[in-house]
Amino acid sequence: MPNTKTSDDEFHSELPPETVDSLASSLPESLSIQVDLPAAPARVMPADEVAVAIDEVAVNPGYVESSAPSTTSIEVVTPPLRRSSYAAVASAAAAPAASPYEALLATDAAAAAAQHSRRDRVRSEHVDMAGGYEAPVEHSRGDGPEDAGMLTADRLLEVNRRTRPAPKGGWNRFVYNATFHGVNLGDSAKVRAEQAMTDRIAKQFTGGTRFVPILTRKGGVGKTTVTTLLGMALADAREDRIIAVDANPDRGTLSERVTKQTRATVRDVVTKAHTITGFTDFSSLVSRDETRLDILASDTDPMLSEAFDENDYNVVADLAARFYSIVLTDCGTGIVHSVMRATLQRADSIVIVSGGSVDEARLASETLTWLEANGYGDLVRNAVVAINTATQGTNLVKLEEIESHFQSRVREIVRIPYDPQLAAGSVVNYEDLKPLTRHSARTLAALVVEGLPADRGM
Q1: Deepest in the core among 10, 169, 294, 430, taking most CB within 10 A?
Q2: Binning pLDDT at 50, 70 and 90, where does residue 296 land?
Q3: Which uninterrupted H or E stretch holds 346?
C-alpha cells in the first residue's frame, strides 16, 4: 500500500496560494469545546479535624512585628510509665484507630486504666537499685481481707540508714560500731544465706496442723536423733508451736534428748484427755527445750501390760492438732503395728532415716518399698531421706552411691554429720552443736517444710 502520509509543508505546497488565503479567512478567531465530566463527591471533614481546625482568617503579610519570634517551642513532659503500664500502652497502640488523634487518646486511657487498677490492689514498692525504677510487689486481696501478719517491717519500712538493721557479725559489724553507726555495710553473704534458710523454714501454713512422721525399719540408725534435730531446727526458726511425740509402742528415748520438766507421758495425755481444755493444761504434760520445742514422752514403765496403740495415738494427735502447727512423730522400729497405720494416715510428709552401712541403707530402701506397696506412693515421692553418717561402717561405703539410689525414689537427701554431742546419746544443746551439724539440721527442716502443703482445708 503506498504511503499517503504528507507533511504540512507538502500539503501547503500542493494548494494554490489563493485557496490557502480563502481557508484562513473562513476560520474563527477562537474555538471552545465543552466536555461534561462526572461530579466528584463532596469531602466531609472528620470530627477530629473539625475539633482542631484553624479558622481561615485573612492575614496581612505586611503586618509582622520585628521583635516577635518566628516560632515558639513548647516542651511537653509526660510522666514515666511503670512496667505494668507498658503492656496496656502497647496493646492500645497496636489496635487500629480511626486517626492518630484517637490513637493517642486510646493510649492515654490505657495508661490511666493501668494506674487506677493498681490502686485497687494492696501493694508495696521497693526500689530496684540495678534498674533505677520502683518495682511493685503485689499483695492480692484474694477472697477476703488481709490478716495482721501481712503488715511486716519489710513491707512497710523504707530501707535507709535509720531503718536498715545493724549487721549481725564479722567485719561489717565492727565497721558499724567503730563509726558510731554511721557506716552500715549490711550483712555479709554468709549471714544473708542463713537468713534465707530461716525464711524457708518459717514458711506459713493455713488450714490445720501438719503431721510429719520419722520412721525406718531398723533401730539404732539415729531416728530419735534426727527427730530431735529436726524439731529443734523448726522451733528455733519458726514462731508457731512445734511438738515431737514419741509414739514408740515400746519404750522410746526421745524425752531423754531434752531436759525433763515433767514425768508425764502419752499415757497421761490419753487418760486426762477429757480434762484438757486449753494449751496450759496440755503444756503441763510436755517438756520444752531452749529452742521452744515441746516433747511428749512415751511410756517408760515396763510393768504396763497395755501398749500404746492406734486409738491412743489418735487421741494424742487430735489434742496436739488443737495447739500446734507441726507435729513430728518419732515412730517405732516396726512398720506393721497399729500406731504406724494411724501415723501414716495423718502424714503430710515423711522422713526416712538411713545409716551409712550397706545393711542400713538396704533396710531404709525396703521401707520405701513397703510404703509403695501399701498405697503410700505419694508420701514416698515426697519423702526426705536423712542419712546418719555417724553409724558404724559409714567410712567403708560409698555414700555417693547410697544417695544416688535414693535420688531415684524420693524428693531430697540430707547427710547428718558426726557430732560428739549427738553420739553421747544424752541431752542435746542446740547451740553447742557443731556449725555443720546445725546447718544440716536446718537444711533438713527447710526441705521438710517445702514439701508440706501451704494451704489446705481443715
Answers
A1: 294
A2: very high
A3: helix 338-346
Q: How far apart are CA 13 and CA 50, in angstroms?
A: 66
The pTM for the full model equals 0.64
- Among candidates 198, 165, 159, which has minimal Cα distance to 173? 165
CB 353 within 8 A of CB 214: yes
- pLDDT surpassing 50 at residue 101: no
Question: In the 3-class helix/strand/coil scheme, how is 99-155 assigned residue by residue?
Answer: CHHHHHHHHHHHHHHHHHHHHCCEEEEEEECCCCEEEEEEECCCCCCCCHHHCCHHH
Q: What is the pLDDT of residues 409-445, one digit of tens each?
A: 999 999 999 999 998 888 999 999 999 999 999 999 9
235 in the same domain as 185: no
Range of the domain at 183: 165-201
Within-domain flag for 29:
no
State whether residue 344 is helix, strand or coil.
helix
What band does 347 get if pLDDT is binned at 50, 70 and 90? very high
The reply to whether 196 and 210 lie within a common domain is: no
CA distances to 149, 213, 372, 455 from 323, in Å: 19, 18, 32, 18
Predicted local distance difference test score (pLDDT) of residue 129 = 38
Residue 421 located in a structural domain: yes
Residues 318 and 389 in one domain: yes
CATH number of the domain bearing residue 406: 3.40.50.300
